[in-house]
Write a structure and sequence with these properties.
single chain; mainly beta; six-stranded mixed sheet; three-stranded mixed sheet; globular
Length: 186
């Protein structure tokens, strides 16, 4: 309900500023592409786009640990939606591995069992979604981050990608970990 009120207020603001309903959240006609069957919600231009990046490390026992770095977004279970004043867009995340939806995420950290990843090259993508499962987008681009990894290599991270990175432009060198540099040295 909070999201609807948020967009209603945003829509009214957009109408007052421009006299056009074009700034209101609208479904994207291209929803369902790239394996995601959920509709897409365009973030109105007067709302800051959430930012997201992924980090991954090998788990000491098995598999991998994935961390979602984000801001301008309330990542939470629908159970807790509307329980506090809204500062940003809110919702949960969807985890995809090699194009297949694996699960919803309500927190920033998740363990990925080895069995979820095939030998060799893998793509791990996380999208930011509203509580109705619609994917947030700006300018037709879904808000998401992707890691390309090759699980059987020591330096297994091949490439990082985000449609809305936490740090605009290249990451600062002092914040990079050895696995973050894997794609640069190859």
């Amino acid at each position: 309900m909070k999201i609807i009120g948020y967009f209603l207020i945003g829509s009214l603001f957009g109408l007052m500023v421009s006299g056009s309903p074009a700034l209101a959240a609208q479904a994207n006609p291209h929803a369902g592409h790239n394996g995601d069957q959920h509709p897409v919600i365009e973030i109105p231009v007067h709302i800051a786009v959430p930012r997201i990046e992924l980090d991954i490390s090998r788990d000491s026992l098995s598999g991998f640990n994935l961390h979602i770095g984000y801001d301008r977004f309330e990542l939470e279970s629908p159970r807790y939606a509307n329980n506090k004043p809204q500062r940003f867009l809110e919702g949960h995340a969807h985890l995809y591995i090699n194009g297949e939806k694996i699960q919803r995420l309500y927190a920033a950290d998740v363990h990925l069992p080895e069995k979820l990843l095939k030998p060799g090259f893998n793509q791990i993508t996380v999208t930011l979604n509203a509580h109705d499962h619609s994917t947030w987008s700006r300018g037709g681009k879904r808000v998401l981050a992707t890691l390309f990894i090759q699980r059987d290599r020591d330096n297994f991270v091949l490439h990082h990608f985000s449609t809305s990175p936490l740090s605009q432009g290249e990451r600062r060198e002092e914040s990079k970990k050895p696995q973050d540099l894997a794609h640069i040295s190859q």
